[in-house]
Design brief:
This protein is mainly alpha-helical. Helices cover 76% and strands 0% of the residues. The chain is built from 9 helices and no strands.
Length: 203
């Protein structure tokens, strides 16, 4: 019985190590350019063991993105639930954190979704589908918080929450890509200014 109970724990530890190691490497190199042997060597996992956890590199990519979006949306839920700030302030703080992440990690280390969206969408339908679901989920959380801001009176009730959320998220994804291309933070600085304008504070 003891041996049986340990197996799932070992499985999760090894699987998590492969996913976490792979994510960090892919943030720097991209998905296509990185070989499985490099991921497994960095994770200290035998190559033959990989297929016990994932059916293919594509399957690994799907699991990695699912893990990423699950963690991301949990953090976003916590951030948007912070009652010490108005809902509008929570939104602005969330988008400001994109800029802070870039400042702390460099323009080449943006989030996994931004890193892989353009690269894998035409190469892997399963990975594209996970990206689509995950990004739509983020937009839905932003829209919910816009509605909270409208209900409390910190953001204009004239806004369409869903359209505004999609516009804001699209702008920040685009600004992140421009920042990567130019190796400068100005696109994100401009995006933050536009975010403040697109979420007009009620008087």
């Amino acid at each position: 019985m003891q041996k049986y109970e340990e197996r799932p724990h070992t499985y999760q530890d090894t699987r998590e190590r492969i996913l976490a190691t792979g994510e960090q490497l892919i943030l720097g190199r991209g998905f296509s350019a990185l070989g499985l042997s490099e991921i497994l060597a960095a994770a200290a996992v035998p190559k033959g063991s990989f297929y016990h956890y994932f059916q293919s590199k594509e399957g690994f990519g799907v699991a990695m993105l699912e893990r990423y979006f699950t963690d991301y949306q949990q953090r976003l839920t916590s951030q948007f639930s912070d009652q010490s700030h108005s809902a509008r302030e929570r939104l602005l703080r969330y988008f400001a954190s994109w800029q802070e992440t870039a400042e702390n990690g460099g323009c080449h280390k943006f989030c996994l979704a931004v890193k892989l969206a353009a690269e894998v969408s035409d190469l892997s339908e399963p990975m594209r589908a996970v990206l689509s679901v995950g990004m739509r989920g983020i937009c839905a959380q932003i829209a919910d918080t816009i509605r909270l801001a409208q209900a409390e009176g910190s953001v204009s009730a004239a806004l369409n929450a869903e359209e505004s959320a999609t516009s804001l998220y699209s702008m920040w994804v685009g600004a992140s890509l421009l920042a990567k291309v130019h190796h400068e933070l100005q696109p994100l600085t401009q995006a933050l200014k536009q975010t403040e304008l697109l979420l007009p504070e009620t008087k």
